[in-house]
Design a protein that fits this description.
alpha+beta, four-stranded antiparallel beta sheet
Length: 434
């Protein structure tokens, strides 16, 4: 398909000029006009060859030639409309990106690019034509993605609802080892009594999240039926446990603290001690602290490195604390005021050199000075912990499913609107009818 900014008259004059200096031959015909672009017979022929090649490779039968030609024409019209949108957005696919896409296609077919070229030649398809068709496909796809994304709106409630459905599916046959604390408060208790019970339950959850022993707190505070067993109910599937427990356990993994939540007899806190039959997703978080020194006109790389080496020696010798050194030297305002601490983070958020240090450095050891794009650092890993991210993973999956559904729906609607508002004419057919 070729873009034309001139009129069809200009195309005719060009064709006549070409014929005056070359031997007579069949000229490429305009078969369809789409707004200010044209689809040529050579475009149709090239796509027909590609479709036939792919069908033969997959042993896929094709419809009759009339139906196939109609389908190919429709695809070319839709592609042209998307390319016109891409032109408005200024989308350009350079040769580097195009080569990457072709390499990927060859790899998916377990071929080298040279073997792919030969396969095309064997099927009568020019590699140059194939490349340009690939460029058009990618360009059209980008234009479609930009426009359709603007039309998609996913509400948090939609994500939560689908995530619950996915959790129910994945939790069939899953067993949970749970412990329970119940703080008793009757339905007819005063507002002050209910408020006091909730405050105590909230405080217990805070202590549990800070590492307090669940069994000890259950012995001391729980009025539940398993209080004398440290609150432990043992292994149960969701259908075997009290409904109020099952309703609260979503996709929480091992170690999750749930609550406080209310029932007719009081406030409850659950802990998932262990899970069987559920695929959980865990990530390692690192709590690290660092000192950052940046180079400048008056601070060379060597100067920054020496300054950090001096600070490191002072810290190791006990002459200065890491926090004091960070407050005095570090130019990272976010962490310097907090003694250099970066808080609990997954290493993936850091630049590669810093990520490598916090992943490999033993806990409590201060690194030698090293350089990143931000400047020179020394870093110490204070602590590491494994954190369950199953809940977040299920919600991410729910969001992706919803996005995919809505994208396909909105893409079809957008393409229909685009086609309905376009000027499309097939001159050859019009002439035949005239």
């Amino acid at each position: 398909m070729k873009k034309w900014k001139s009129s069809l008259l200009g195309l005719t004059l060009w064709s006549l000029a070409a014929g005056s200096i070359a031997a007579p031959r069949e000229l490429d015909k305009v078969v369809t006009i789409v707004n200010d672009s044209v689809i040529l017979q050579s475009d149709v022929d090239a796509m027909l060859k590609t479709v036939q090649m792919n069908a033969a490779r997959q042993n896929q039968p094709l419809p009759s030639s009339d139906i196939l030609s109609e389908q190919v024409m429709e695809k070319l019209i839709i592609e042209t409309l998307q390319l016109q949108q891409a032109q408005q957005f200024g989308i350009r696919i350079d040769d580097t990106r195009l080569d990457q896409a072709i390499n990927q296609i060859a790899a998916e077919r377990n071929m080298t690019v040279a073997q792919l070229q030969q396969m095309l030649v064997d099927n009568g398809i020019s590699f140059a034509v194939f490349r340009e068709q690939m460029r058009r496909d990618i360009t059209a796809s980008e234009a479609r993605t930009i426009q359709v994304r603007r039309r998609i709106n996913i509400l948090p409630q939609e994500v939560d609802t689908l995530a619950e459905q996915l959790e129910k599916q994945t939790q069939q046959g899953v067993s949970f080892n749970i412990s329970h604390i119940q703080l008793r408060v009757s339905e007819d208790a005063s507002s002050a009594e209910k408020s006091e019970a909730l405050s105590q339950a909230t405080q217990l959850v805070k202590e549990l999240n800070n590492g307090a022993d669940f069994a000890n707190l259950a012995y001391s505070y729980s009025k539940g039926p398993k209080a004398l067993q440290g609150g432990e109910w043992g292994w149960m599937r969701k259908e075997e446990m009290p409904t109020i427990f099952a309703d609260q356990i979503k996709s929480g993994g091992k170690g999750a603290i749930i609550g406080p939540f209310r029932s007719g007899v009081g406030y409850h806190i659950l802990k998932i001690n262990d899970v069987q039959g559920l695929e959980t997703i865990s990530v390692t978080e690192v709590n690290a602290r660092h000192i950052l020194v940046k180079t400048s006109v008056i601070m060379s790389d060597e100067g920054a490195q020496r300054q950090l080496e001096k600070a490191r020696r002072a810290i190791l010798a006990g002459e200065q604390s890491f926090a004091d050194a960070a407050q005095a030297l570090s130019v990272d305002p976010g962490s310097a005021a907090n003694g250099g601490e970066l808080g609990w983070q997954t290493p993936d958020i850091y630049v590669p050199e810093f990520k490598d240090k916090v992943e490999t450095l033993p806990t409590g050891m201060i690194s030698e000075p090293f350089k990143t794009v931000h400047g020179w650092h020394i870093v110490e890993v204070i602590e590491r912990r494994d954190v369950d991210r199953t809940d977040a993973a299920v919600k991410n999956r729910a969001y992706r499913i919803l996005f995919s559904r809505k994208f396909n729906e909105e893409a079809q609607a957008w393409l229909q609107e685009l086609r309905a508002g376009a000027y499309i004419e097939q001159p050859e057919n019009a002439n035949d009818q005239g």
